[in-house]
Structures are given as C-alpha cells and as structure tokens.
Amino acid sequence: MQKFTVYEGVAVPLDMANIDTDQIIPKQFLLAVSRSGFGKHLFHDWRYLDDAETKPNPEFNLNKGGYQGATILVARDNFGCGSSREHAPWALQDYGFRAVIAPSFASIFNNNALGNGLLPLRLKVEEVDRIFGVLVQKPGTKIEISLVDMTVKCDELTFSFELDPFRRHCLLEGLDAISLTLQHEAEIKSYEGRRQKWQSPL
Description:
The protein is α/β, with parallel strands linked by helices.
C-alpha cells in the first residue's frame, strides 16, 4: 500500500450529499476482483451522456478543464453510503484520487477506504463550505494534506483534522492487512515450527 505522509493535488468539488457506492461505481461494472480498471467507470452515470462512455458530460466537474487531473475529491455529508462494495474505493484510487474530504462518511466505505490506502478525511461542515467556496471560484486550486501534522491547506485556509491513531500509523507506513500480518512473520514461522504434525494442515 502506498504511504501517505504529505500530499498535494488538484481538488475537485462535488456539491452533493449522500453520494452512494452505486453512483461511484455502478453495479454493471463489478465484473472483476482485481483492483485495477475501475477508474474509467467512476461516476459513470454522471460523467457520461452515453452508456458507451464516448460522450463526456460537460456539466460534470470531473470533465471540466480546471479540474482535470484532480486527485482530491471534496463532497458533502454521508459520502459512500449504500452497498458495501469495496470496488468504490478501488474505482476512486484507480482514477487517481488519494483522498476524499467530506463532513461524514458511511462507516463501511470509511473502513474500506482506509484498508486500501484512500484517506477519508472529515472536516466540519462550515470548513467544507469554505473549501467549496475556494474551489468553485478558483478551479485548479491544489489542496495540501499532511498526515504528519494532521492539517489541510487550501489556498489561504488551514484546518486541522483527526484520525484514529492506528489507521494513521498504517497510512503513514503504507501498511495494509497483509503487510501488518507479515510484520510478525518470524513469530508465525516459529509457531508453525512448534506445531505437532497432527495439527498441520493436509
């Protein structure tokens, strides 16, 4: 998993609450179990005017010139609600997003995002409002997120945020569930070596 320490990227505003996982990655694209290839279908119903994805919707912010190449998404309350599909953070990451800023997140999406190295960053409603104001007035504005200092900087705005210390440690070190387990590889091998033959798997 890629480490997240200090990151700066263009931010795109999606001024909507309750963005659900079926809008993030619609069900018809859940045909693979690998994490790659979903980014091109991200926000399919909003991003395109046709099912073949050949006609971008010019009114959707991800298709507007000032927000091209955005890697930080700013949204409203309850981002990631709906089904528990892990494909939602996969699609966001495959598109290029490293973080989503919102006042609140659906709990399952929140856990799936953190487990995959995508940062769901909570700010107060009024703080998100102020960031929206900047991004709408100045498309192409970059946001700097420091997981070291626990701060968010956007134009002249600076806000602090909180994150569970264990989750913060994992992101800083780039540790997913497998990496965490492998930190105890020596103890695991020692334990396996002490097991009696009848306890060993066939």
